[in-house]
Automatic annotation (TrEMBL):
Protein name: ArsR family transcriptional regulator
Pfam family, one: HTH_5
PROSITE patterns associated with the record: HTH_ARSR_2
InterPro entries, A to Z: ArsR-like_HTH, HTH_ArsR_DNA-bd_dom, HTH_MetalResp_TranReg, WH-like_DNA-bd_sf, WH_DNA-bd_sf
Molecular-function GO terms, alphabetical: DNA binding; DNA-binding transcription factor activity
Domain HTH arsR-type: 27-122
Record organism: Streptomyces ficellus
Domain of life: Bacteria
Keyword Transcription regulation among record annotations: yes
Keyword vocabulary terms for this entry: DNA-binding, Transcription, Transcription regulation
Length: 122
């Protein structure tokens, strides 16, 4: 018997943007805080590699045992994964001895929407 849970997929209408697109209006202080926290978490090369490893892993989730080969110690990997979770970029679930990580699709969609407007400006 498995303890695995099926995580629900979000429909595009369920995605709540953290911030307006950059060319829509100036951000409020609160919106800037949220966006900065996400981008700051991705500003570290090890965190970016871990985030990419989870995002590109088959099935959209990865066991920490499959992504920890990023050139730093296991405690450092755990620290960086914790920072990505705190920024809202990853969620996790413990299954037995291992922890599985999944990218938060609503947050990634919100980050994409924030940046998408910047590409349409002249």
């Amino acid at each position: 018997m498995s303890n695995a849970k099926v995580l629900p997929l979000l429909e595009p209408d369920d995605v709540a943007a953290c911030c307006p697109p950059l060319n829509e209006r100036p951000m409020s202080a609160e919106e800037a805080e949220v966006a900065a926290r996400m981008f700051k978490a991705l500003g570290d090369p090890v965190r970016l590699r871990l985030f990419s490893a989870v995002a590109s892993h088959e099935g959209g989730e990865a066991c920490v045992c499959d992504i920890s080969d990023v050139g730093v110690s296991q405690p450092t990997v755990s620290h960086h994964l914790k920072k990505l979770k705190e920024a809202g970029l990853l969620s996790s679930e413990r299954r037995g001895t291992w922890v599985y990580y999944r990218v938060e699709p609503s947050v990634v969609a919100a980050m994409g929407a924030l940046l998408a407007g910047a590409t349409t400006t002249a």
